[in-house]
Design goal:
Layout: H1 3-12, H2 31-40, H3 46-55, H4 62-72, E1 91-104, E2 107-118, E3 124-129, H5 134-148, E4 153-156, E5 163-167, E6 170-173, H6 175-184, E7 187-190, H7 200-214, H8 222-234, H9 236-239
Length: 247
C-alpha cells in the first residue's frame, strides 16, 4: 500500500502520524573534525579535507562530503556599501579592457578598449586601440572629452597607465596624466586597493559592451569597429534603463 494512502487514512481517522526518525549521515561522526580544521584553515579546499577524512575512516561519497563542507565552512560577515550618488558631470570612471587580438598583416596585435563612463548618466565612451600604451591612454581621454565632456573627478584603478607607485595613501601619479589633468582641469583619483565597488559602473559597462556590442560582431578594421562603437554608445547603450530610472 502506498505511503500516501496510509497518511490520508490516518488523517481521516484523526490519528497522529508518528514522527520520522532523524536520519544519520556518514559524515556526521566527522563534523567536529571538519569544524576544527576549518577553524584553523578557513580556506582549505574540500578535496583536501576529503582526503584527510578518508584517512580517518570516512567512506561516503566525495560529492556529499563537499556539500557538507560548504554548509560548515565559516563565512565572512557581509559588508555593507553606500550606493554611489553623484551630480551631473561630477565623476567619471575609466578603465582598459582586453578584447582579444586582431591580425594586422603578419602581426598579431592586442585589441584594447578604452572605456569611460559618466557616473550620473551612465553614458559610455568606448574606443578601441591596438595596445594600451600611454599614447593610446591620452588619446582615449581627449576623444572621450570631445564626445561626452569633462567630469570634475576621474576614477582609475591602480594600472601603471595612471600611477607609477603607490604606498598606502602616498600616490605617485604618472606625470603625463597630471599634465593632462592640469590642461583639462580634472582631478585624477585612485580607487582603494581591493575596492572594486568604487569603480563598479565602468566594470559593468565593460561586461555590457562585451555581451551587447562586441559578441559575434563582424568588423572590417579598427576604424569600422570604432564607428560601430560610436553608433552603439549613442544609440542602444544611451537608451538602456538605469537603476535611478525605476525610482
Amino acid at each position: 500500500m502506498h505511503r500516501g494512502v496510509v497518511r490520508r487514512v490516518l488523517r481521516q481517522a484523526d490519528r497522529v502520524e508518528a514522527p520520522a526518525l532523524p536520519k544519520t549521515a556518514k559524515v556526521d561522526p566527522y563534523t567536529e573534525f571538519i569544524l576544527e580544521i576549518l577553524d584553523r584553515y578557513p580556506t582549505l579546499r574540500a578535496s583536501r579535507l576529503y582526503t584527510m577524512a578518508r584517512a580517518r575512516g570516512y567512506r561516503g561519497s566525495a560529492d556529499h562530503f563537499r556539500h557538507w563542507v560548504a554548509l560548515l565552512r565559516p563565512r565572512p560577515p557581509a559588508e555593507a556599501y553606500l550606493r554611489l550618488r553623484t551630480l551631473p558631470d561630477e565623476i567619471a570612471q575609466v578603465d582598459w579592457a582586453h578584447f582579444g587580438h586582431v591580425q594586422i598583416g603578419r602581426a598579431k596585435r592586442p585589441l584594447m578598449a578604452f572605456v569611460r563612463v559618466l557616473a550620473y548618466s551612465r553614458m559610455i565612451f568606448l574606443r578601441f586601440y591596438l595596445g594600451a600604451a600611454m599614447g593610446e591612454f591620452i588619446r582615449g581621454h581627449v576623444e572621450g572629452f570631445e564626445r561626452l565632456g569633462i567630469a570634475r573627478v576621474l576614477f582609475y584603478d591602480n594600472r601603471k597607465s595612471a600611477v607609477l607607485e603607490r604606498v598606502g595613501q602616498a600616490i605617485h601619479f604618472d606625470p603625463t596624466l597630471l599634465e593632462l589633468a592640469a590642461h583639462y582641469h580634472f582631478q585624477p583619483r585612485l580607487v582603494a586597493v581591493a575596492r572594486g565597488n568604487e569603480k563598479d559602473r565602468v566594470e559593468r559597462a565593460i561586461r555590457y559592451a562585451r555581451d551587447a556590442f562586441f559578441a559575434a560582431r563582424p568588423f572590417n578594421g579598427l576604424d569600422d569597429l570604432n564607428a560601430q562603437a560610436d553608433a552603439w554608445c549613442q544609440g542602444e547603450a544611451a537608451d538602456r534603463p538605469c537603476p535611478e530610472d525605476r525610482t
